[in-house]
Amino acid sequence: MTSSVPSPARIRIGSAPDSWGVWFPDDPRQVPWDRFLDEVSEAGYEWIELGPYGYLPTDAARLKDETARRGLTVSAGTVFTGLHHGPDVWDRTWEHVAGIAALTRAMGAEHLVVIPSFWRDDKTGEVLEDRTLTATQWRELTTQTERLGHEVRERYGLRIVVHPHADTHVDTEENVNRFLDATDPELVSLCLDTGHYAYCGGDSVKLIETYAERIGYLHLKQVDPEILADVVANEVPFGPAVARGVMCEPPGGVPALEPVLEAARALHRDLFAIVEQDMYPCPPDKPLPIARRTREFLRACGPARSST
Xylose isomerase-like TIM barrel domain: which residues (predicted)? Predict the structure, then answer.
């Protein structure tokens, strides 16, 4: 007789250029891409994201060689979109997405992380547009995101996972719920970033339990509650907040990651959980020791022990 007990879920732990202070394709304050690959492998990770397109080599054959000889595999690519602006931005958006999606697929990954555009600049803090969407903009955001999910799936075989993010329009519990309720689960899943969601006042475990079928990918991150309180009180933009250290090394911040991983494991499906400790800018020798300690901490978390 066949058992009806679901097979244990695998939580695949990885890291990303973000944890090495990389926010842009080219920036003199960032570590060179080959150093990132060397150190992320040395820290004990086997999975990585592509990071900002153009930071890692964009030639698939070269990137496959560079990652394979370090024992690394790509889990996802990342794109930035402003789909609430409607069909007028579709062609420009698709031009941006297509190259990244092609490289992501060529590297054997199955996910494309989609980050909504910022209402204020993440580097300068300049206010770019109203922080609240109109009803029309919400409709455009959801319908155009569904269109993106369909096109990416049909053309590249990838699943989009939308990433709620500070200083974007998909940020708080209210806005994340509204976005999920208005989009098709067959086309749009969620990349739950525990740090960004806590930054915006959300409860990651509650979100996983409430929208279990929509959780398609995880970013593991914590915020320093004391720094966050000051950031919120003084309306500090995200970039300067990161420079203050608002995103901190686990397990020193919130949310606690053990319950998040436990809730994710209870979904009974395989998930990537990619460490992303925002650090921009940061000294070049700072990331590796943090990455090592974080990997060991996650090994000690019960749900992460079965990761591959």
Answer: 37-300
